[in-house]
From TrEMBL:
It comes from the Bacteria. Keywords: Kinase, Transferase. This is 2-keto-3-deoxygluconate kinase. CDD domains: KdgK. InterPro entries: Carb_kinase_PfkB-like, PfkB_dom, Ribokinase-like. GO terms for molecular function: kinase activity.
Amino acid sequence: MTNSASGHVVTFGEVLLRFATPGARLTVQCDALDMVVGGAEANVAAGLASLGHDVKMLTRLPSSPLGDKARAALNAAGIDTAHVGRDTGRMGLYFLESGAGLRPSSITYDRAGSVFATSRADQFDFASALEGARLLHLSGITPALGPGGVALAQAAVAAANSAGVPVCFDGNYRALLWDAWDSDPRAILTDLMQSATVMIGNHRDISLLLGKAFSGDGSDRRREAALAAFEAFPKLQLIASTARHVVNSGHHRIAARLDARDAAHQTSEVDVTGIVDRIGTGDAFAAGVLHKWLQGADLVATAQAGLAYTVLKHTVPGDMCLVGPEELEAFSASGGDVRR
Ligand SMILES: O=C(O)C(=O)C[C@H](O)[C@H](O)COP(=O)(O)O
């Protein structure tokens, strides 16, 4: 099955290597770490490619065995890497100390000065990657990298605007990155959001953008925030978010919510137990939503696909959700028993 008949999707951002403590070990207990390839925009690319979409990733990697490893993982996920530039320099890394029970996982970044973070906008061929594209997906992680990252994100959305390609922007607020420099995330993210047709983010992200608290309860508060975002961002057509209640690190309750200008839909909550890997579940949600949105599905089907894809990702180790469309449909229809 292919979903690419009428054009491809471009994702733009940094690809990272993740080093995770195996099992629920503390870093101090480990002699070896599990290495996988990830990064928010690569994860969305991998999800969409696995779901049958034609996806190009626009990024830059080091000319080194680490860069080769990252590119090979993108290719293995079915992502077109023709627009992946290579240069001397370092690979962005992050370290994950895996949590268990009431002890949450924690992340340490080691990505300052990476090939991607030190790239200039003129080192990317945005125009050719975006030619004939249906969507550009990027996230708040790129501008959080520093002034150079802000310039990259601005150049990407400017190129999408001039090519008439809709933009999906995932707020992906990473305090560790924004707090590492003299940043003004509100001003920077608000400016980028002016170009967004789809936003992945919840009422807290909208509060950050608009500098305003929303007072209602549950669904009312989310609707109030969404309406304020639609007023502030004229191009915006869809806001997608999850409502996540964390019981412990292995057990979350999750619902998916979509807000359009004239309607909203929130799914019922799913009990997600036995969580294998929570990292990348937000990106899987984005991929599930975009998968249906690109097909022109209604809010109910789009929210269900986002929910199902993120729930499935909680069972898949690594950053990327490589589950295909048949498994997604079968899972949505049947729940979790063995298929024989
Ligand atoms: O933090 C970053 O900069 C990364 O890109 C690492 C991870 O790949 C994403 O953070 C996963 O994001 P979630 O899907 O929200 O769990």
